[in-house]
Amino acid sequence: MKEAIDIMHLKTFGKTTEWNQFLTKCLNLNDLKTLADTLYGLQKGMDDAVKKKINDEKMSVFFIRLQRSIEMTMKKIIRKKFPLPNDNPLYTGNDISKFIEIKRKRDHEFEKYLRKVSY
After folding, report:
1. How far apart are CA 63 and CA 101, in angstroms?
2. Minimal CA–CA distance to 5: which of 38, 32, 43, 45?
3. CA dihedral of 74, 80, 81, 86, whole degrees rounded to 10
4. Which phi and psi angles does 12 have, rounded to 5°?
5. What is the reported pTM?
6. C-alpha to C-alpha distance for 70 and 88, rounded to whole angstroms
7. Which residues does 109 contact at the CB level (< 8 Å), separation at least 6?
8. Which of 15, 40, 43, 88 is most buried, by CB atoms within 10 Å?
9. How far apart are CA 24 and CA 20, in angstroms?
10. Higher pLDDT, 3 or 1
């Protein structure tokens, strides 16, 4: 069973630079599993904080920012592993419409994966 991450402790003693280094390391290693485990732990930790009634608006915003940064890093890894021409907003090829359906399918699979690994 995956461990909960203490959100209060992370908010109090965590450093932005260390968090960014963690995300960068996972991105460079294409490590979706570590990111998924961390996401689960954060969500479980936030659930514990809500049950103990120690959460407040600032903690909720902090949690959402952490969760979003993990999701964005995971999405970057997926795009790196399965690149498509229309991932680049500057792409001007005439064949962009044929990649739209493929991109939607990839994004849908990613959303399903996120639901599967979430708490």
Report:
1. 33
2. 45
3. 110
4. -75, -45
5. 0.87
6. 21
7. none
8. 43
9. 6
10. 3
Query: Token pair for residue 20?
Result: 């960014």
User: What letter does residue 85 receive in the DSSP assignment?
Assistant: G
The SS3 of residue 82 is coil
Token readout for 79 is 């795009």
Could you read off the pLDDT of 13-29 as tens digits, one per residue?
989 999 999 999 999 99
d(CA 83, CA 30): 14
Sign of CA dihedral 47, 49, 52, 58: negative
pLDDT score for 1: 55
Tokens of 88: 């680049």
* Whole-number pLDDT of residue 61: 94
Domain residue limits, the chain? 7-117
